[in-house]
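Subject: two folds for Thursday's group meeting

Dear M.,

Sorry for the delay on this. The cluster queue was jammed most of the week, so I only got both jobs back this morning. I'm pasting them in the order they finished. Each block is the input sequence followed by the predicted structure tokens. Could you check whether the formatting survives your parser before we put anything on slides? The first protein is the one we discussed after the seminar.
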Amino acid sequence: MTFFRNQEIRRQILLSLGAILAMGGLGLFLFPASPDSALFGVLCGLGMSLVWLAFTKTRYDRLRDLAADTDRMLHGERNLNFTSYQEGELAILANEVEKLLLRLLEQSDTLLRDKRYLSDSLADISHQLRTPLTSLQLLFARLQAEGDVREKRRLAYEGSQLLGRVDWLVDALLKISKIDAGTAVFVKEQVDVGELVERAIKPLEISMELREQKAVLELKEQVCFAGDIAWSAEALGNILKNCMEHTGQGGTIRVQASENHLYTEIQIEDNGSGIDPEDLPHLFERFYKGKNASDSSVGIGLALARMIVCAQNGTLKAENREGGGARFTIRFYKGVV
């Protein structure tokens, strides 16, 4: 039997037999006139040893079953019940093993989801990069064959725009990967919201001027929060860029800021076409492009903005205005939420 191959069991049996025989010999030595008493003691010792042996075998069988259940769960079987182990220390052990296995299974499921997500993300990234790169190849082919100087300049300008798009895409993806990996460094300092808005809107001034759009800033004095101004400007800039692209010629983008004892709030509103109700639940998902998205949109600007805000103990919400247009609300909380 496997039970008796156990070195510990065999050692315990030998020690028990040795102790019983020694006690029997000692009884005969001390009481030579009553050998029946010594025999009775030996038989009692053997009986107790057999009871102990039966109990130990039962416990080892349960441990073997627990090991088998653990092995099956590690190999993918999920519908196992560990509550059948109700015996003292064995029940405690089974409970701890079950918790450990459930934790391992959760980690395995998380790793599998991350692997699938990484695969999908790589496919999306590949597609997003391939589109402008293919256009660049066609442009350069036309540029080489084109003889007209004006047409060459136009093609060169289009090529520079496409290169800028690729550069922005790669930069945004690197920032997202840094935040995902937990390697992004967010400096915590006092950020003046007026300076933040100015830094975020400056790269968009020319584009807004060409669209004849107006930026209206309604910022209360000395509104600030604890955060990283560079990362926050990146987030706010992506939101402003989204509003600019979805606001028509001559539209208005309004930025308001206020502060109370709980949080600092920044609201960005436009009077454009607004957000389609079907797009609202997915607006901050990576690579999601809404129904009204432009051809140049890649669907990561708002996702990056929310990641940056959330990493600084903040929230970002999108909604439609009653009078038309979209509203984005950023809140940087002063305490943990």
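Second protein, same layout:
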Amino acid sequence: MDYHVTLAEMLDARERRAFRQQELLARYQMPMVCFTMNIPGPVKNNSLCRQGFELGKQYLKEHLDSLKIHPAFFTEVSQPTGNEAYYLLDQDYLLVKEITCGIEDSVPLGRLFDMDVLKPNGEKVNRQELGLPPRPCLICGEPAKVCARSRAHTVEQLQAKTWKILAHAVEKEDAALAARLACRALLYEVCTTPKPGLVDREGNGSHQDMDIFTFMDSVSALWPYFEICTRIGRQTANQNAGETFRQIRFAGRKAEASMFSATKGINTHKGAIFSMGILCAALGRLPRRQWKCPDIVLKECGSIAKGLVAHDFAGLTEENAVTMGQRLYLYHQITGIRGQMEAGLPAVKDVGLPALKEGIAHGLSVNDAGCRALLALITAADDTNLIARSSLKTHQEIVRQVKDLLERHPYPDRQTLNQLDLEFVEKNLSPGGSADLLAVCYLLYFLENES
């Protein structure tokens, strides 16, 4: 339940903020940015406010970093009365004010930011010193101070507009981040080298119709899809997870069409459209703070895919089983990526992601740790792509071979990997399903370490 602050509490908080400002200015004798949020009504801080505040800090950090400006001091405070951040910057105060006004004026969320700039003597820098107009009203666009004095809009109207701005901004930023990291994960996967039988930086593996540039074309076409899946997840977060899947499935069909258009009919990422689409939708259903928890994210993936195997393989017979996946399920009860996803991707959770993280902790590069994780994934899940290019018996033999290799060489060197690649290419083998899971591992690793 949101905490409603009183007028007395807000006045006390204002006094404490003024004292903190004076203390820091006296200590550092340089301009200060005091960043707070303009939240009307009695609720000044909750999860949504905090997310908006974090975005404001992110925008300011990005601007300062781009100019190679590093705060001499930074601190922040989070109370029911609101969030506060203090930056002491050894820079010209007009430059600092230009930066903060640019943030306040460039995005809708900026209207909720109060990024006050104070001179070393405590005097506030006004927008007029830069020749900028006064800040506009949330509702009508007229000068905000004029509307405030005349009480042109009710608190309820201002609150409704505030929550709408916050929700839209957080959804937009989360979707963009998820899409960016999903594309990055797919690019890392194709660039991981050497990968037995797969396209990488050194060759086409067992594929004659595609190369690394085909994959880059495909990834470039899929960015909007991952953003859409994340948005769908956010918009259906309060509904049954099955509704999320129903909506992203249509988006997935459209993404496949975009992929084939970009690659001139070549299937580079059909499996990834399925797995990464569900993963992005799961991120949308979860608050950003939980993105760093792979177990929570993968559990949400399982919820979204619940019942998928039974639904998609219902009523299969020898006469109507036409795809390799259908035949493998009918004759061998192999559920492929559907079963993995419905179970919360245990191959990723228990094998692939730990192998990736252990390799990096062992001192391997991300590339070499990825090679090791790929081999581990080959042993952990039924790769229907590999089976389709050979047989179930060959797949079982490959799994035994790779398990034996990892027992003898937990961290295979480049020569060992190249030899395995030659063997896969000679037999026309391609563990494409395992490669899709490797991309999932990369995405979860990025989320855990960078989101």
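Two things I noticed about the second structure. The radius of gyration is 27 Å. Residues 84 and 339 are 47 Å apart (CA to CA).

Cheers,
T.
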